[in-house]
Amino acid sequence: MASFLTLAGCTHERLGPVEGHFADFQTRKPNGNTVYVCHAYGCAKQTRFRFTDEDVATLRELTRTRQADTPHEERRAVAYAIGWMEKRVGDVIGTKDDRPGMDFQGPGDPTQQDCVDEATNTTSYLLVLQHNGLLRHHTVGTPFSKENLLRGVAGWPHWTAVLKETANGQRWAVDSWIYANGENPAIVETEKWYIDSLDNLPQAMR
Known about the structure:
With 206 residues, this protein is an alpha+beta fold.
């Protein structure tokens, strides 16, 4: 029984390079400003999308909105950038009406994205920001998941993208799955992320 309880509440750490996540889910990592967007749940569908030079210029303006040159302000800027990137992509590939959270009608629906899709896509978008020199205080970490099966459906495995703060090594969960397409993700310390249930998740970062 003790072993079951230990296994029921788990954090699945993945300490290898971020590229390993794309290999695990058989999707392509970004190539410069080109991403391969996961949708239809579990990266069942993957659609190529390229951020144009104009898009990158918009992202530069978004990341300049930070109020100070600090890690916290960079995370705020990243939240707005990720929200904008989700909307930009969703309007083109058809995921603009992606519903927040888990939806039992979602698997196989190309307009919908689960937490694997969202964690993979957010990681891709973070890599685009990093590729363009828009991350000064962070690097892109490897996605990981948590679960607590004792809570039933509310404790199912949940994936998140990760930012790693360069000054102190603190890892931050960047979770876009909680909210509808185009909303700012929640950005919270990985230790504090998803420790209760899907009914008690962090707020979008503003």
